[in-house]
Amino acid sequence: MANLGIVRSITQVGRYEPFELQVSRGQITGHETLNVFGFASAVSSSFVAVWEVNAAYVFPTVASTMLLSSSSASDTAVTVQIDGLDESYNRISENVTSNGTAGVATTKVFWRINSVITIAGVAVGTLFVKNAGGTVYAQITIGNGRTNMGVYTVPANHSFYLKQTDAWSSTSVTSGTFATYRTLVVSPTGISNIVLQAPFLNQIAIERPMPTYFPEKVDLQFQCKSSGSALNIGTLAIGILIKDFITGS
Fold it and tell me: Is the pLDDT of residue 156 over 60?
């Protein structure tokens, strides 16, 4: 069979391919899609980032090596990919293989962790990424295969354009309990801003006709709280990460 070249997602009679699809397919240099997933099983009356640990997310204050461990001694050959940033906010990535409940140290020094995903093996326990002091910065709950953490730090030499945010809660219409969503933005100098805040019952979907711009090095937390009893809440933030400058010969 003849090689007809790149498979293109355009009509037979037209030449249009949606911009978002081109980005997802890696056809536009310096652009990539970004989906930040979050889930928490017991969000209570204080705003917290929606992530696997039912507590506030606190970013590291110093760059350090991290330790991968499991809640199960059986997890001796599960390899994960840790994606994060170094102390200059440059993107770094490292593959680490678990050794049961013992902590396996990274060779790279992490300032931020943006995601962790399983690339080999199936964990029977919960996987943790901690610093030497025991603070958890990422967690893969049993059966998930990847982190579900509503936090993200924009890398150096990149801009993030947020197009859509969604949140879902386990409240019922008749319970009298509602959730409140907000996006917390913290600059590298520590200045905090709330970009959006809105109450909702079961679901909120915020689509931006013009994407919201976030510059390099800002910390983002996609947070929720409950007006009453603890709620299961999931969040999703969708946008495009764009390199500010591209160098080359």
Answer: yes
